[in-house]
């Protein structure tokens, strides 16, 4: 494929690591991001495969990390569920005002409500291929969100036999 500069060809490679802010949660994608670079002008295009799947897997992974959720992360999780604020509030048995305050870092949710939200998020996002341990969330002891933020969640794309669609036999998983 030719570059828009019309002087070079786009060379394709896979980056071993790529850090991406998904809009409230930072992930480090391992061995999956495709880079196309022009041989003449050096212009680059980056492609992340299955961004929606990555977003959902990252939201589920974040729900299982014991640091308190920030407002940006709650908004990210809600968007990963593809829910409006009112729908998310109803599904989590919270008022829309409470969710709004939480997302804007005005008023956090208590421990019991945060555990319920984490359980619900994992249950709604779990597709049989990505598993979670409800007991781990039930016994989770929350720690304050660190001053510099949490480290990017490392994600890797893996082949799976759980999918029924033969065209898409991959999924995102937290790197071990």
Automatic annotation (TrEMBL):
It comes from Bradyrhizobium valentinum. SUPFAM superfamilies: lambda repressor-like DNA-binding domains (SSF47413). InterPro entries: Cro/C1-type_HTH (IPR001387), Lambda_DNA-bd_dom_sf (IPR010982), MqsA (IPR022452). One of its GO terms (molecular function) is DNA binding. Residues 74-107 form the HTH cro/C1-type domain. This is HTH cro/C1-type domain-containing protein. PROSITE patterns: HTH_CROC1.
């Amino acid at each position: 494929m030719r570059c828009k500069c019309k002087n070079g060809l786009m060379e394709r490679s896979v980056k071993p690591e790529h850090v991406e802010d998904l809009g409230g949660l930072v992930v480090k994608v391992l061995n999956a991001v495709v880079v196309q670079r022009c041989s003449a002008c050096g212009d680059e295009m980056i492609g992340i495969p299955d961004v929606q799947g990555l977003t959902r897997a990252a939201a589920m992974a974040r729900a299982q990390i014991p640091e308190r959720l920030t407002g940006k992360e709650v908004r990210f999780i809600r968007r990963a569920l593809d829910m409006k604020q009112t729908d998310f509030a109803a599904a989590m048995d919270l008022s829309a005002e409470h969710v709004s305050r939480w997302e804007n870092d005005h008023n956090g949710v208590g421990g019991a409500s945060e555990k319920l939200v984490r359980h619900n998020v994992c249950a709604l996002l779990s597709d049989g291929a990505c598993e979670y341990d409800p007991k781990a969330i039930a016994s989770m002891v929350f720690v304050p969100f660190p001053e510099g933020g949490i480290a990017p969640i490392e994600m890797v794309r893996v082949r799976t036999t759980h999918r029924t669609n033969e065209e898409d036999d991959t999924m995102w998983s937290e790197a071990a």
